[in-house]
Structures are given as C-alpha cells and as structure tokens.
Predict the structure.
Amino acid sequence: MNDRLVAADVLRTLEGVSPGSLRTFAQGLALGDGPFRVLANPVDCYADRLEHADVGEELSNLAMRHALRRLFHDATIAERLEGVSEPFWQAVANALDASDSRRTAAPGSAMEPEPGR
C-alpha cells in the first residue's frame, strides 16, 4: 500500500464527523506541544473538504502524508499510540506500522519502497 492510500485511509476515519467538530479537534491538536500537533493541518483541510464542495481531496491527502512522514521519525509515537481505541488514532498507528514495515523492506524510504523492490 502506498502512502497516498494510507493517508486517505486515515482521513476516511473522519467521515461522518461535522466540519465544526473537526475544526475543534484540529485546534486542540494544534494547541498541544507534542508530536501529534502535525495532524492539525490535515484535519482542518479535511474539514474544508467536507464543508465546501469545490475543495478536492488533494490538499488534505498531501497534508496527511506529510504529517505521517513527520510522525514516523518520532521515537515516542509507538508508545503513545499503544492501546488506542478511536478509529482515527488506530488508523494513524496502522499507517505508521505499515511505514515501518516498508522501510525495513526497502532501506532509504520511510513511506514508499524504492522502485523495483
């Protein structure tokens, strides 16, 4: 699975949540001083996507891919996500686990294997 699909899977867990609730969630993430604050922008972009029919999925997906890449490099993430039960956090944990598996299989890439591997 490539990082575009992983990011889309994480965002898909937010379907059915109102844009206002997503914005509140994004603000809470942004106010935190931990590593998860990088998820604030993708969540806010996803709220825009839900609220405005003319906003495509590209920006929220790109922002989530970037955030997941940044989270992947934080050594405390696995411990912080251990035992989570909310679908969004489970999807983040699964995305990072999948990234770790790909990195182990394809050195030099944290999110996508090298071509031909």
User: Anything to note?
Assistant: Helices lie at 3-12, 19-31, 40-51, 58-72, 77-81, 87-105. The chain is about 65% helix and 0% strand. Residues 15 and 50 are 9 Å apart (CA to CA). Residues 109-117 have pLDDT under 50 and may be disordered.
